Amino acid sequence: MNDDKTIIEFKDIVKIYGKAEAKTYALNKVSLSIKKGEFVSIMGASGSGKSTSMNMIGCLDFATSGEYLFDGINVEKLNRNQMALIRRNYLGFVFQGFNLLGRTSALENVELPLIYRKVSTKKRKELAIEALNKVGLGSVVHHTPAQLSGGQQQRVAIARAIVTNPLVLLADEPTGNLDSIKSVEIMDLLKHLNEELGITIIMVTHEEEMAKYSNRVIYFRDGHIEQTLKKGYK
């Protein structure tokens, strides 16, 4: 799904860490755009700028200079509270380490973002069950993470990320802790969420095989975009 609306746009983004001799350009005049409904992978070696870019997109950090537009909003002009509202209301996050609460059920883990939104208890449960069904875990809603496989735990994390119906899902090495079979299952799920539900997905990965699931791959090197390749589903 792609309606040609640009949802993420960097205009000459610069991010500098340190001062004087310790000054480092994590990003050096990076410009990019991502359209609604795209599935984009970001790749690059350690220190290339890919993680810094993801932090910027996720409203977790400010640029030193340049403009970042999120759905037309100039993020660089927002304060930290306003950036937190964008994260809470429009972004979903999936991490390599799952980040689930160990003593709570899958259902309760998925409900967490809705608590911050002050959604009623009844509605929270309905939405959480719906999200778990979307990732194929409707039968294990009351299981704790210890009762689930690594792949199932990541599915719970994905359900938690999509339960708020975000504009953009940010996935940081989502298959990094999984074996090859479970990795393929997670990538098939992300591809399904992108194609069937139209969720815009931006994924950081170091694995070419996983990047092949996306529509486009952006390669970073030394704070610059080295190249952008369009790829088809494997």
From TrEMBL:
Gene Ontology terms, MF aspect: ATP binding; ATP hydrolysis activity; transmembrane transporter activity
Keywords from the UniProt entry: ATP-binding, Nucleotide-binding, Transport
GO CC entries: membrane protein complex
Residues in the signal sequence: none
Gene3D superfamilies membership: P-loop containing nucleotide triphosphate hydrolases
InterPro entries: AAA+_ATPase, ABC_transporter-like_ATP-bd, ABC_transporter-like_CS, MacB-like_ATP-bd, P-loop_NTPase
Domain named ABC transporter: residues: 8-234
SMART domains per UniProt: AAA
Family per record: Belongs to the ABC transporter superfamily. Macrolide exporter (TC 3.A.1.122) family.
Name of this chain's protein: ABC transporter, ATP-binding protein, FtsE/LolD family
Species of origin: Malaciobacter marinus
